[in-house]
Design brief:
The structure is a homodimer.
Chain A (H helix, E strand, L loop, with lengths): L1 E9 L3 H19 L2 E6 L4 H7 L5 H8 L3 E6 L14 H12 L4 E7 L12 H4 L4 E7 L11 E3 L2 E9 H16 L4 E6 L5 H14 L6 E6 H10 L6 E4 L1 H14 L7 E5 L5 E5 L16 H13 L4 H16 L2 E2 L9 E2 L2 H10 L2
Parallel strand pairs in A: 1-2, 1-3, 3-12, 5-10, 8-9, 8-10, 13-14
Antiparallel strand pairs in A: 4-5, 4-11, 6-7, 11-12
Helix pairs in contact in A: 1-10, 1-12, 6-7, 8-9, 10-11, 11-12
The complex binds 3-isopropylmalic acid (IPM) (2 copies).
């Protein structure tokens, strides 16, 4: 059976890194005898310029006919003057998340041992590196809660959650932890927010079905501290939409290289959207110097979750590790004694190990 | 004229560190010929145990009759089983903030050059240390917005701001920046939140009255990264209530010693509440090992803002610096080649320099 993949390269470094991701996917398909069909579609600023909207109907249609979306990144200074609701990030990403009910956002924050020097943290805090998984609820909370608006001199947003929305993301978190180091840290602000009090109650209930997984609760303000103090204490970090946005960016910075971090946005079936955690990096776009590894690891996640091929995932992951072991680095992760390579060279090198 | 100071020592390390803060205030009063009158009052878990409520009416009355509140810290494991709205932190702090309209929370995050080794950040990122001021809106936003509640299987909180609430905190931020390095970074999530769009508009308006101060806007997720990547880029960081809660804790951790960080919560007049940024630290309470410097620097802020004596503030600040220069350290900031001292010894040493 052929798996259909919508390719939404977007803006900035998106097209360059997506190209490398596709090379890797093709090489992986050969090796594992997978049949993949790629359909490119416009998104973000590029779509605004050509069709007046960040997420054209045709693009949405292509995604709807696909098994997975391979997403680059969107946005850039030329669209920053647009009203907030028309800007590429918001106008492309939020409707995609909502339309496809992509409620579970997986953001692994892994400090590769080869890149320990790149982390802003002191060596004794990092130790042998860390590997945590932020699990962010992606289709509810203050991002989508109603009412939201302005009246007279007042503006308001609504943070709301329903029990089943918390149950399903919590289940994903516990199931993931079961396959990892068996610990879930649930983030909330239960000393202030009513939603957090309910969040905590529901998570405690769900945890009963996973007696082999340890559960702890942590306030968001404390979590923002603990991530820096000792990132190795975390395994799976379960967050609502807004807290997950903040903590995943913070965690990614601790790895020293947002260019290394993939993400997967999943729903109940096999459909998923895969994109690097970083943005479109307009300052380095078009120079063939961006790090394609986040995009390539996103391709690995696509194999695992949408194609049901963890073996293909592991092969890509290990190819990346081998290339890092051989001391090849893009500029963002360059350090003394290593060999600097371009975006496309990095893509080639990784393909060579598959 | 005698200045009346309500002393709410609270729980955990609160009483121990407040005692040192009072010693320093008394010594400072002698030196500068200030007349201070201290009135102790119960708050937090101690008040719950004795009077069944975290903020007894008598305590509120004492605060109302005072010019400033010198606050220790509240909370501890023995009260964690209480319903959220009765827990010491929330039930004491939130009503105090609201009753006294303490809308401007100043949280300086200073990495003292003597303590560079204590920071979790790499030496090259820290450089000669950093000194930023988080200005957090403290009486509105999602902490107090209505409606807030539960219905059926749903829970909700409201994030709301009115224009004048943003104007007044923005003015405090720009006025503070004017006396510092003349830069305000305003934090929001204007790509998602309606309140943030208005926040940004209002801050831009207020900025027009401070043409000598540079203004930049930063999304909260990016700010959580930038604080770690390069804390030295910030001068004054202007935040709403929730974002300020998160960023101030993150920033405090970067200084490596939450035991060093004071805070002031101010309104329009001279009245203010002064407390360490850290919590009640029940694990080390009663051992005479807690760091009293945050409390002592909070006393310095009290002199500056409620007594109108910046000279007294500077004297206390410089006393702390001298004691650090002489390599005296409490356990939390201890490092090789230094002399470890107790809570009360640290208080004595600082008094000795005033
Ligand atoms: C662009 C923005 C709407 C988005 C978010 O806040 O979810 C981004 O920050 C992310 O984390 O994917
Ligand atoms: C205890 C809690 C309600 C409080 C807050 O969130 O404001 C605390 O975290 C703080 O920062 O003062």
């Amino acid at each position: 059976m052929t798996a259909k993949i919508a390719v939404l390269a977007g803006d900035g470094i998106g097209p360059e890194v997506v190209e490398q991701g596709l090379k890797v996917l093709e090489k992986t398909a050969q090796k594992f005898n997978l049949s993949l069909e790629f359909t490119p579609a416009r998104v973000g600023g590029a779509a605004i310029d050509q069709e007046g909207t960040a997420l054209p109907a045709a693009t949405l249609q292509i995604c709807q006919n696909s098994d997975a979306v391979f997403f680059g990144s969107v946005g850039g200074p030329q669209w920053e003057k647009l009203p907030p609701e028309q800007q590429p990030e918001r106008a492309a990403l939020l409707p995609l998340r909502q339309t496809f009910n992509l409620y579970a956002n997986l953001r692994p924050a892994i400090l590769f041992k080869q890149l320990k020097n790149a982390s802003p943290l002191r060596a004794d805090i990092i130790g042998e590196g860390f590997d945590l998984l932020i699990l962010r609820e992606l289709t509810s909370g203050i991002y989508f809660g109603q009412p939201k608006g302005r009246a007279d001199d007042k503006a308001f947003d609504t943070l709301s959650y329903r029990v089943p929305e918390i149950v399903r993301i919590a289940k994903v978190a516990f199931a993931a932890a079961r396959k990892r180091r068996k610990k879930v840290t649930s983030i909330d602000k239960a000393n202030v927010l009513t939603t957090s009090v309910m969040w905590r109650e529901v998570v405690v209930e769900v945890a009963k079905d996973y007696p082999d997984v340890a559960l702890e609760h942590m306030y968001i303000d404390n979590a923002a501290m603990q991530l820096i103090k000792n990132p190795r204490q975390f395994d799976v970090v379960l967050c609502d939409n807004m807290f997950g946005d903040i903590l995943s960016d913070e965690a990614s910075m601790l790895t020293g290289s947002i260019g290394m971090l993939p993400s997967a946005s999943l729903s109940d079936g096999n459909f998923g959207l895969y994109e690097p955690s970083g943005g479109s990096a307009p300052d380095i776009a078009g120079q063939n110097i961006a790090n394609p590894i986040a995009q390539i690891l996103s391709a690995a996640l696509l194999c695992k979750y949408s194609l049901g091929r963890p073996d293909a995932h592991d092969t890509i992951f290990s190819a990346v590790n081998q290339v890092l072991d051989e001391n090849y680095r893009t500029r963002d992760i360059m350090s003394a004694g290593c060999q600097e390579v371009s975006t496309s060279q990095m893509g080639e090198l990784i393909c060579g190990k598959i």
